[in-house]
């Protein structure tokens, strides 16, 4: 009896468990359906579908905006094929200078520090040098000699001009009072006074001769006296003419000698300046002159100025240090424009054909930035024996300060141009099941299309098969579409 009782109880318990398990499964299925329905409502519409056997992705407008999906129309265009060369940023040689000491000396002071911005002509250091003091002192001495020589020349030239005018008036027979009046504002010197005296005597001899001639005709004066007076007149006229000739000659010679001394003084000053210029080297031009100190008691002090506007890139010395000739004090550069130097290897010589002014694209792996345009500055002609390459230098705008000298870069150089080809942006390409594809916008959503690609360049790629003009291709956010496609495929 007990065995039958326990068997009946066990059967009843199993029936109860079975009923409970069946009820639980039905509730779970209901929950899954409700959950799927709720999720579908939250996701709005995000399911793949097949239209005429083609798989498509549908997204709501909200998801399209969130994914940043953007499309462009397929067009025909020109594709520039490039070759990427390793490159590096460098200073623009036309905006870069290594400022060096012109001669031995001691740095009195350093007026700038690394990173400072400087203007052209701004003082950056002060140097004291005995050699510069000696050269400047010679210039100052020669300047003083030149001033004396110029003054002497002006004096002699004025005397010669005054004597020449005086001689002209005397020979014209002007009255002596009128000559004296006109000569008051002229420099006639010692010769002028002598000529006026002799002219006065000559006029007196003429008057006496004329009066004797009148009296001799009436017999009042003997013929001998008349001849003596005529002889005196002729002698005075001859002496006056000789004095005029001598005065003109002497004053002209004095003027020529003074001019020669002036020219010699000018030459000596030029030589002194050239000596200082040679001593200063390029600083003479960069500082806008020889910087001959107006303070004659401190001619050994040289204020070194910046030869260009830019930034102090490096500083090698401090104040009170002794420096030798050609020691580098500063590196000053205007980095608003930089050079990008690339090497064209032997295998690329035949394919790369660029010249001055051509555009290349420069990018750098160190910065997350799109490629920047640069203009070819020069293409070298000589092969570097160490690298076996020809240098290619391009100038790039760096007004925003993104790049720095020494930074590595990549330079995309055009090697071929293809016209009238189907082009899409490289960002449109996706790998779907091992095939290169793009997403084309259709009436029912986004359709993945397998394409055959050709050459690439400048962020664009040639499409040989798979697309036609006028189609709209996703160029931004294609990865989100690929993710949706793969996710729904797994479900």
Brief write-up:
The protein is built from 8 helices and 23 strands. The protein is an alpha+beta fold and 491 residues long.
Shape: elongated
Structural class: alpha+beta
Provide the β-strand percentage band.
Answer: 25-35%
Number-wise, the strands total 23
What's the total helix number? 8
Strand order of the largest sheet: 4-13-16-15-14-17
**Spans where pLDDT lies below 50 across 5 or more residues:** 21-53
Helix fraction bin: 40-55%
Radius of gyration, whole Å: 52 Å
Domain CzcB-like barrel-sandwich hybrid: 101-334
Domain CzcB-like C-terminal circularly permuted SH3-like: 423-482
Keywords: Coiled coil, Transport
Organism: Rhodopirellula baltica SWK14
Report on this model:
With 491 residues, the chain is an alpha+beta fold. It has 4 domains: 49-82 and 418-490, conserved putative lor/sdh protein from methanococcus maripaludis s2 fold, CATH 2.40.420; 85-93 and 334-412, Elongation Factor Tu (Ef-tu), domain 3 (Beta Barrel), CATH 2.40.30.170; 96-123 and 305-333, Beta Barrel (OB fold (Dihydrolipoamide Acetyltransferase, E2P)); 144-274, no CATH class. It is 41% helix and 30% strand. The chain has 8 helices and 23 strands. The strands form 6 sheets. The protein has a 6-stranded antiparallel β-barrel. Strands 5-12-10-7 form a 4-stranded antiparallel beta sheet, with no helix packed on it. Helix 3 (130-172) runs parallel beside helix 5 (189-218), helix 3 runs antiparallel to helix 6 and helix 5 (189-218) runs antiparallel to helix 6 (223-280). The longest helix has 58 residues, at 223-280. The radius of gyration is 52 Å and the shape is elongated.
């Amino acid at each position: 009896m007990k065995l039958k009782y326990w068997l009946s109880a066990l059967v009843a318990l199993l029936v109860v468990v079975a009923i409970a398990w069946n009820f639980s499964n039905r509730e779970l299925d209901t929950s899954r359906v409700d959950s799927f329905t709720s999720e579908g409502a939250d996701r709005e519409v995000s399911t793949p579908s097949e239209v005429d056997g083609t798989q498509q992705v549908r997204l709501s407008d909200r998801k399209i905006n969130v994914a940043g999906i953007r499309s462009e129309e397929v067009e025909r265009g020109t594709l520039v094929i490039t070759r990427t060369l390793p490159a590096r940023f460098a200073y623009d040689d036309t905006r870069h200078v290594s400022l060096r000491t012109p001669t031995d000396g001691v740095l009195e002071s350093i007026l700038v520090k690394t990173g400072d911005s400087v203007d052209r002509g701004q003082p950056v250091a002060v140097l004291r040098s005995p050699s510069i003091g000696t050269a400047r002192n010679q210039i100052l001495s020669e300047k003083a000699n030149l001033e004396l020589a110029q003054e002497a020349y002006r004096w002699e030239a004025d005397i010669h001009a005054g004597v020449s005018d005086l001689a002209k008036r005397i020979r014209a027979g002007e009255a002596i009072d009128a000559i004296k009046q006109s000569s008051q504002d002229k420099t006639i010197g010692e010769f002028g006074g002598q000529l006026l005296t002799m002219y006065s005597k000559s006029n007196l001899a003429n008057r006496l001769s004329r009066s004797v001639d009148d009296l001799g005709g009436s017999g009042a004066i003997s013929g001998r006296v008349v001849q003596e007076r005529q002889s005196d007149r002729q002698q005075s006229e001859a002496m006056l003419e000789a004095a005029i000739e001598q005065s003109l000659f002497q004053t002209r010679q004095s003027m020529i000698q003074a001019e020669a001394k002036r020219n010699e003084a000018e030459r000596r000053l030029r030589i002194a300046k050239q000596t200082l210029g040679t001593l200063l080297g390029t600083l003479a031009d960069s500082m806008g002159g020889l910087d001959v100190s107006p303070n004659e008691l401190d001619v050994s002090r040289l204020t070194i100025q910046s030869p260009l506007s830019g930034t102090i890139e490096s500083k090698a010395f401090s104040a009170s240090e002794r420096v030798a000739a050609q020691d580098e004090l500063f590196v000053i550069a205007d980095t608003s424009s930089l050079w990008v130097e690339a090497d064209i290897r032997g295998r690329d010589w035949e394919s790369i054909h660029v010249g001055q002014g051509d555009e290349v694209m420069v990018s750098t792996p160190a910065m997350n930035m799109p490629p920047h345009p640069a203009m070819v500055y020069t293409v070298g002609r000589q092969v570097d024996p160490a690298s076996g390459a020809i240098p290619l230098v391009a100038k790039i705008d760096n007004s925003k300060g993104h790049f720095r000298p020494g930074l590595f870069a990549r330079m995309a150089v055009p090697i071929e141009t293809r016209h009238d080809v189907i082009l899409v942006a490289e960002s449109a390409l996706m790998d779907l099941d091992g095939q290169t594809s793009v997403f084309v916008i259709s009436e029912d959503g986004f359709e993945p299309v397998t394409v055959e690609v050709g050459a690439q360049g400048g962020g664009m790629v040639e499409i040989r098969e798979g697309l036609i003009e006028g189609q709209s291709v996703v160029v931004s956010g294609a990865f989100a579409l690929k993710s949706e496609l793969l996710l729904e495929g797994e479900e």
